[in-house]
Design a protein that fits this description.
The chain has 200 residues and is of the alpha/beta class. The protein has a single domain (11-197), classed as Vaccinia Virus protein VP39 (Rossmann fold). It has eight helices and seven strands. It has helices spanning 11-19, 22-34, 41-47, 63-70, 82-91, 120-123, 129-138, 159-168, and strands spanning 53-57, 74-79, 96-99, 111-116, 140-151, 172-177, 191-197. The chain has a seven-stranded mixed sheet with strand order 3-2-1-4-5-7-6. Strand 2, helix 5 and strand 3 (96-99) form a beta-alpha-beta unit. The chain is globular. Residues 54-144 form the Methyltransferase domain. GO terms for molecular function: methyltransferase activity. Keywords: Methyltransferase, S-adenosyl-L-methionine, Transferase. It holds the Pfam family Methyltransf_25.
Length: 200
C-alpha cells in the first residue's frame, strides 16, 4: 500500500486520502498549537473520565493516542490505513499500533474508553457503519465508555441512528455535546460528541 493508493473506506474517505497531503495534515496540529489554539480537545475530553486504558479507534496518525499516552494512560491505536499508522509508529514507536478494519477487528481485550474521534464513523463505508460501532462497543469494558465525535451533515449517521446501533451493542446513552469542549448539543448542532456507557 502506498500513499497514492489509500485503504478502502467510504467514498468520502477515499476522496480525503486522495486529495490530502499527509505531511501538511500532520503539521496542521503543530500550527494550531503555535497559534495559541488547543489541538488536544479530544484528549482533554477523554481525560475527564480518568481511564486506565484507552483504545483510539480509527487513530490515523495517532495524534489523540499519543497525547493520551503522554498523560499516563495505557493507549492502543487501530486503523485501516497502514500509511497513516506508519506516521503514528514513527512519532511514537513504543506504543502499540494495529492495522485493522473497524467493522471486523478483534484485539481480544477491553478498554475503559474506546474513542473514535475525527469523523471516524462517517468515514467508514455506509454498509459497515453499524458493524464498526458494534466492534468498537465489544472492546468497551463493563462500566467503560464509547466516545465518538463526527459531523452531522445529512449523509453521515444521524444521532438517533447511531444511538440505536449502540443500544443494540449493549451500550446506554450517557451524554451528547456539540463540541469536544462540552458545549450543549442543540437541534441545529452540526457536530456531535457522544458518550455511551456499558453498564456494570
Amino acid at each position: 500500500m502506498t500513499e497514492d493508493q489509500p485503504a478502502v473506506g467510504s467514498a468520502e474517505w477515499s476522496h480525503w486520502r486522495e486529495t490530502v497531503d499527509l505531511d501538511d495534515y500532520a503539521n496542521r496540529w503543530k500550527r494550531m498549537a503555535e497559534s495559541g489554539q488547543n489541538p488536544h480537545g479530544e484528549a482533554d475530553f477523554v481525560s475527564r473520565f480518568e481511564p486506565s486504558s484507552v483504545l483510539d479507534a480509527g487513530c490515523g496518525m495517532g495524534r489523540v493516542a499519543i497525547e493520551l499516552a503522554t498523560r499516563g494512560y495505557e493507549t492502543v491505536g487501530v486503523d485501516l490505513d497502514p500509511d497513516l499508522l506508519l506516521h503514528a509508529q514513527q512519532n511514537a514507536p513504543t506504543l502499540v499500533w494495529h492495522v485493522g478494519d473497524l467493522s471486523d477487528f478483534d484485539l481480544g481485550r477491553t478498554f475503559d474508553v474506546v474513542v473514535a474521534a475525527g469523523n471516524v464513523i462517517g468515514f467508514v463505508d455506509e454498509a459497515n457503519r453499524s458493524k464498526a460501532v458494534w466492534r468498537c462497543a465489544a472492546h468497551v469494558a463493563p462500566g467503560g465508555r464509547l466516545i465518538t465525535g463526527y459531523s452531522i451533515n445529512g449523509t453521515w449517521p444521524a444521532p438517533h441512528l447511531y444511538d440505536g446501533w449502540c443500544a443494540d451493542a449493549g451500550l446506554e446513552l450517557e451524554a451528547r455535546y456539540s463540541t469536544w469542549d462540552g458545549d450543549p448539543f442543540q437541534p441545529d448542532s452540526t457536530y456531535a460528541v457522544t458518550v455511551h456507557r456499558r453498564p456494570v
